[in-house]
Amino acid sequence: MAAKKTKKDRVEKKQSPKGKVYISATFNNTLITVTDMEGNALVWGSSGNVGFKGTRKSTPFAATTATDKVIKKAKEENALTEVEIYVKGPGPGRDAALRAIRSTGLKIAMIADVTPIPHNGPRPKKKRRA
């Protein structure tokens, strides 16, 4: 049998003032993940996680609410002060999430769009016969 873990045995979370925020804005939802500089996830959330369902999940308001909740939690638990933001996807929550981060008072070091763009894409349909 394994011995019961005590407080000393638990791993302490590292307090890092810098972090990365990944925003994935799809047409149906907005996902927000806060990581440390190495890429280890600290906090995450989404429009659905906050309590929105159905078509309301895809609104900018839902994205703002989700972002506020995630950033607040990241500031409390990890003393986050400066972030790099990576935005992916074409959804309506994209700009709203950025505005929400700006309003929380975090210093934004960089904003990058990492939306994947095909350089050739799938094979086109065959030509229509006349």
Automatic annotation (TrEMBL):
Protein name: Small ribosomal subunit protein uS11
Keywords (A to Z) from UniProt: Ribonucleoprotein, Ribosomal protein, RNA-binding, rRNA-binding
One GO MF term attached to the UniProt entry: rRNA binding
Assembly mode: Part of the 30S ribosomal subunit. Interacts with proteins S7 and S18. Binds to IF-3.
NCBIfam families from the UniProt entry: PRK05309.1, uS11_bact
GO-annotated biological processes: translation
Organism in which the protein naturally occurs: Candidatus Woesebacteria bacterium GW2011_GWA1_39_8
Family: Belongs to the universal ribosomal protein uS11 family.
Gene, per the UniProt record: rpsK
A GO CC annotation given for this chain: ribonucleoprotein complex
PROSITE patterns: RIBOSOMAL_S11
Pfam assignment, any one: Ribosomal_S11
Function noted in UniProt: Located on the platform of the 30S subunit, it bridges several disparate RNA helices of the 16S rRNA. Forms part of the Shine-Dalgarno cleft in the 70S ribosome.
PANTHER family for this protein: 40S RIBOSOMAL PROTEIN S14/30S RIBOSOMAL PROTEIN S11
Domain of life: Bacteria
InterPro entries linked to this entry: Ribosomal_uS11, Ribosomal_uS11_bac-type, Ribosomal_uS11_CS, Ribosomal_uS11_sf
